[in-house]
Amino acid sequence: MHLPEAFFNLALIKDIMGKIFCLMGKSACGKDTIYKKILTDDALPLKTLVPYTTRPIRDQETDGVEYYFLTEQQLRELQQQDKVIELRSYHTIHGIWHYFTVNDHQICLTEHHYLIIGTLESYQKLQQYFGKDALVPLYIELENGERLQRALNRERLQTNPKYAELCRRFLADENDFSSEHLNQAGITRVFINDDLERCTQELADCIREHISLKAQA
Question: What is the pTM of this model?
Answer without folding.
Answer: 0.79
